[in-house]
């Protein structure tokens, strides 16, 4: 991961953004944080990252101000990870990747992996970022997520396989 001191080579905001979030593992970590995972093990299970990869990404995200660590256990000392305002503001990018992937990266017979319901009016927002019923722009905090059975099973299988390996 590139640090701020090494980013001075360009004023391009796309290149600078990619310095922070420009690899698969970092985006998957952020996806998990947006889905409500806060602990290292759950993020590891759902991303498939090795412990070293995940630790590196979380440290980079922390140093870039995208996440903060908060202790949840004293002995042994364990942390959970929470998105900062900067991290939460990345949600439109994850949302756009989701919408693009739902449109272009799956078979016709596959259902939408995650459906989002607008809490205020109770309607499905589809793949957009504006509720089609009430016309309100939505952010992740405005939405309730429900996983398709296939995606829920995939996530449960990862969790079971991980726990089986850890034994």
Automatic annotation (TrEMBL):
The keyword Transferase does not apply. Residues 12-109 form the HTH hxlR-type domain. Keywords: DNA-binding, Transcription, Transcription regulation. PROSITE patterns: HTH_HXLR. It holds the Pfam family HxlR. Coiled coil: none annotated. SUPFAM superfamilies: Winged helix' DNA-binding domain (SSF46785). One of its GO terms (molecular function) is DNA binding. This is Transcriptional regulator.
